[in-house]
Amino acid sequence: MLKHSKKIFVDFFESEKSGGLTLIFFTVVSLILANSAFQETYLGFWENKFGGLSLEHWVNDALMAIFFLLIGLELKREFQIGELSSLKKAALPIFSALGGMLVPALIYLFYNFQQPTANGFGIPMATDIAFALGVLSLLGKRVPLALKVFLTALAVIDDLGAILVIALFYTKTIIWSNLAASLGLFVLLLVFNKLKVKSLLIYIPVGIIMWYFMHHSGIHATITGVLLAFSLPTKPTKKLASPAEITQRFLHFPVPFVILPLFALVNTAISINDDWLTSLTSPASQGIAVGLVIGKTLGIFLFSWLAIKIGFAEKPTGVNWNQLFGVGILGGIGFTMSIFVTLLAFDSPTLINNGKLAILFSSLVAGLIGYTWLSFSLKDKK
Question: What is the model's pTM?
């Protein structure tokens, strides 16, 4: 079981680090097109309707639900057989993630207290797991496995926090009948699981219908991906892997190499005007930038230090304090999740564009500083 679990983790890490580099490439492509002579055509393309919804809507609401399905499956695996399977194992990443969410949110609120942009407090709370692992992978074999596992567990818990923040704070109007229908289907899937139904041909269609009702309930439909993940059986049959593992392995390619690049193409089409430097000095942009670059670093490191010093958690084997601090810096790469929350927090196109620009700038700074810090703190392995 341990060997099998480690193989799943290695596969996950490899897909995430490659996906992070792919994400960087498509972000650059999107930025170039959004600030070229093709700007109007490029931005207008994503507004084309299909099935009553724009292409942008399909990417952000439907395809991102599949992204959250993978996140949910990874969370489930970590809770069952991974780094979160016991309180002792889970303590450090849980404390670290908690600090990495609370401190950036408080910093953002400090800059935006009693401002109309105060609703954006959830933006700097997120960590982009693909980008963070992508940067860590650039350091090669010098990175201890324990450090990779810690960053992965930290980012996974961080994603869970982001999911809860979206559900609790970024839901405007709830249509209770549709929500009840969606949750009723979720209960039905749990019953199927209890009855040892193993066929994905049952779970996936019900999951799609559940997404439909959730989408029309007022709660962001991507939450459906997490609910579906937690309903999938994890016990294999004599001949086949479990439905959860089959789904997780299948998604390891399309999520980092299709869905997230499409998300980047749609949502990083940031118009960089002559006054872009001025936009970075707004309260919202300052809250995002300081929250991600400084808040994330301090929150993750200080809460880790505190948890270890008071005996609630143990420092990962072969990992020193400098390396933990470096991981805290990488936690400031908010990118995908931060942009996603920005789309929910703000209605103004200008605020959304400026927020994306601040996220892009902050994620770049956090990535560069984190890489440089860790490159000096890691010993060469020849």
Answer: 0.78
